[in-house]
Design brief:
The chain is 51% helix and 18% strand. It has 5 helices and 7 strands, in the order ααβαββαββαββ. The strands form 2 sheets. A 5-stranded mixed sheet has the order 2-4-5-7-6. The N and C termini lie far apart (41 Å).
């Protein structure tokens, strides 16, 4: 019963987040319209002022993209499969999680294979997987560390790796880390990786979570072409 109540609370929070992003879009549109108006009269202003206008417009575009990605992530997934580029999905996940990474001064090092093959997936569900995996890496990492994300073709499969410099996984946790409601985090729900496992199984994708030689973990996913 307690688990059901907690799941319901998470669903409500998701709806509130989606509602909030909708409300942000309206005042953001007003700000952008006014900035565009100022830019049309750029000859009236000095160079420093025009630089401020350009920087504000760029920031507004970034916020708008974050809102778009968050709304897409919050929508209920339909069982729609489409040919997708895994690099594009990961980019959206990075943008969604960037705020939490910035709080801990965690930097991303991203190495995309630009010739990566497209794959048949449900984009929203796979986006959820990468948001979960990247968020877990951020939670486990120390301030000032880095996260490596890379994609590549290997043995006829499209592969993606998310590598963090976190605390790693205890040996006794490996057998149960994907179990429903199991978590080693103080404020964790124990839902995230179990959901990832379910989604990847639906896509007939293979995956594994392993400790790195020095520190942290590597989450590797392999999609069939």
């Amino acid at each position: 019963m307690i688990d059901k109540v907690h799941d319901n609370k998470l669903q409500i929070l998701g709806k509130l987040a989606a509602s909030l992003t909708h409300e942000i879009k309206n005042p953001l549109s007003v700000l952008k319209l006014n900035l565009d108006y100022l830019k049309m009269s750029k000859e009236k202003y000095d160079e420093e002022t025009n630089e401020c206008i350009d920087a504000s417009l760029e920031a507004a575009d970034i916020i708008n993209q974050l809102i778009h990605n968050t709304l897409e992530f919050s929508r209920k997934s339909k069982n729609k499969l489409e040919m997708s580029n895994i690099n594009d999905i990961i980019n959206k996940a990075v943008n969604i999680t960037k705020g939490n990474a910035n709080k801990k001064n965690i930097s991303y090092e991203i190495f995309f294979d630009e010739k990566i093959e497209t794959i048949l997936v449900n984009e929203t569900k796979i986006l959820q997987v990468f948001v979960n995996v990247i968020s877990n890496g951020i939670d486990a990492s120390n301030t000032g560390s880095k996260m490596i994300i890379r994609t590549f073709n290997e043995h006829g499969k499209v592969c993606a790796e998310v590598i963090d410099e976190g605390v790693g996984i205890l040996d006794e946790d490996f057998d149960k880390i994907f179990d429903e409601f199991y978590t080693s985090k103080k404020d964790g729900t124990g839902i995230g990786l179990n959901v990832c496992k379910t989604i990847l199984n639906e896509h007939d994708a293979s995956f594994r979570l392993s400790n790195n030689d020095n520190k942290g973990t590597c989450f590797k996913i392999e999609f069939k072409m």
